[in-house]
Amino acid sequence: MPRPVQRVLTALLLAGAVFGLEATFDHIVPDAAWRQLALFAMVNVIAALSLNVINGMAGQFSIGHAGFVGIGAYTGAVVAGAIHQRFGTDEILFGNSFLVMPAVLVSAGLMAALFGLIVGLPSLRLRGDYLAIVTLGFAEIFRLVIATAQTGDPTAGTISRALGSLGGQNGYAGPDDAGVPQYAGPFWMFGAVVLATIIAWRLKFSGWGRALRALREDEIASAAVGVDPTRYKVTSFVISAAGAGIAGGLLASMRDGNPTVQPDQFTFNYSFDAITMVILGGSGSVSGAIVGGVLVTFTVKMIEQLQGLDSIQALKAAYPALDLNALRMVIYASILIGLMILRPEGLFGERELFRRARKKGKGPTGAPPEPIPATTEAEALAEAAGDGGSGGEPGAAPTPPETEPPGTAIEREEKKVGRDFE
Questions:
Q1: Is the pLDDT confidence value at 75 over 60?
Q2: What pLDDT is attached to residue 417?
Q3: Distance between CA atoms of 382 and 400, rounded to whole angstroms?
Q4: Per the domain annotation, does 149 fall within a domain?
Q5: CA angle, 191 as apex, 28 and 6 as ends, to 5°?
Q6: pLDDT tens readout for residues 233-289
Q7: Side-chain half-sphere of 413: how many Cα atoms within 13 Å?
Q8: How far is Cα 348 from Cα 362, in angstroms, rounded to an integer?
Q9: Of 265, 240, 242, 270, which is closest to residue 252 (Cα–Cα)?
């Protein structure tokens, strides 16, 4: 099957699958809490895929990813609320989502990318711990500026009023405080994951991705062969921030989720979870980022579910001082430590779950390789003699190698031994 036809059929199958999920997801997962968790896992997968670009492929240690997710969430919530107001109805219709969600995702990604450029230009000349401190400081500044903004102050300036309209510590609940419209259902969530996976996959195995990995291994050697470290780092940081902003836009409008965007959602804990997803699955692996995002999301929930068991409740009754929430984090940390000991490179390392195998028997252009002409016995003797079969007339028999009489070599060795003895 021709490659273009195969790609069109694959795209149609994926589109049909996400449309089917939109129609049947409530029946597949009847519990609203588990539906919310599954959609939140998709948000985390996109956040992990975006962080994998800068942390995994480029080898830069950024721990402020929550800040870019928060920027995307607030931007997406404002855009979604403004467009929803123009519909003149409170009902969330799937048809209207094709007007709301593209605007939400584009605006959230662009706003986060802009801040990524502002942060990346001065800070990506740093390395290691210094870069981590800068990105962490940016995320905390963003969160605290919104959380401490004064709301309802008519005497404030334009910027202060704009920040105050985001709700401060109570969070942003839409332009009329009725909640952010939740248009991001399974179609948009799983569709965004599919697109993010394709983009991350193509980026990794492109020339750009190979240049990023070269910078990660040896920046000086990469610069010596023409790779501009600052340009590649800043661009990859902007791409990573844009992906985080898209994840935030989906989080703000997530169906069955919290209709209020609050600054406490984007603390250092969220950045730490995103780093855990990347390292757990395998730094630099697209498949690892997907598996890590799902595992981290559901592992925390599973540990929370264990607290409801009768044996755990009996244990708490016997020991009232036992803090189950602290025990949950101890179990979670123990699982991570055990995995780091057994698999320090992560579940996948830098490998992928699926890799297209090259067709055997094909040349670089897809045509069968040209047959190698058989070597005649005379040519083989000539090559063994060291003349490679060249130097004579075309078609002439090869000249046999010159040999010396057997006695000549023996006499020469006897003379050499005699000189050494003397």
A1: yes
A2: 45
A3: 7
A4: yes
A5: 105
A6: 889 999 999 999 999 999 999 988 888 999 999 998 899 889 989 988 888 889 999
A7: 5
A8: 29
A9: 265
Give the residue from 80, 66, 47, 79 showing the smallest Cα distance to 193.
Answer: 47
Both structure tokens of 398: 């090869």
**Distance between CA atoms of residues 275 and 292, nearest Å:** 10
3-state secondary structure of 215: helix
Q: Give DSSP secondary structure letters for 114-169.
A: HHHHHHHHHHTTS-HHHHHHHHHHHHHHHHHHHHTPPPS-TTS-HHHHHHHTTTGG
Domain that holds residue 160: 9-267
Q: What residue has token string 């963003």?
A: 142
CA 185-186-188 angle, 5° bins: 70
Indicate the pTM of the whole model.
0.79
Measured distance CA(196)–CA(234) in Å, rounded: 20
| Class of residue 139 by CB neighbours under 10 A (exposed 0-12, middle 13-18, buried 19+) | buried
The predicted structure's pLDDT at residue 258: 85
Q: Which residue has the higher pLDDT, 388 or 178?
A: 178
Q: What is the pLDDT of residues 93-115, one digit of tens each?
A: 888 999 999 999 999 999 999 99
What is the spatial distance between Cα 188 and Cα 190, in angstroms, rounded to a whole number? 6
Report whether 287 contacts 204 (CB < 8 A): no
Evaluate whether 100 touches 253 at the Cβ level (below 8 Å). Answer: yes
- What secondary structure letter does DSSP report for 206? S
How many Å apart are CA 253 and CA 275, to the nearest integer?
24
pLDDT > 90? residue 385:
no
* pLDDT of residue 208 exceeding 60: yes
Structure tokens at 373: 């002409």
For residue 35, tell me if it sits in a domain: yes
Domain total of the chain: 1
Q: How many angstroms separate the CA atoms of 83 and 86, rounded?
A: 5
Across the chain, mean pLDDT equals 80
Domain CATH code at residue 233: 1.10.3470
End-to-end CA distance of the chain: 82
Beta bridge partners of 261: 172
pLDDT category, 374, cuts 50, 70, 90?
very low
Please answer whether residues 114 and 75 qualify as being in contact, where contact means their C-beta atoms are separated by less than 8 angstroms. Answer: no
Give a yes or no: residue 393 inside a domain. Answer: no
Q: Examine residue 82 and state whether it is found in any structural domain, yes or no.
A: yes
**Residue 216 structure tokens:** 């990660």
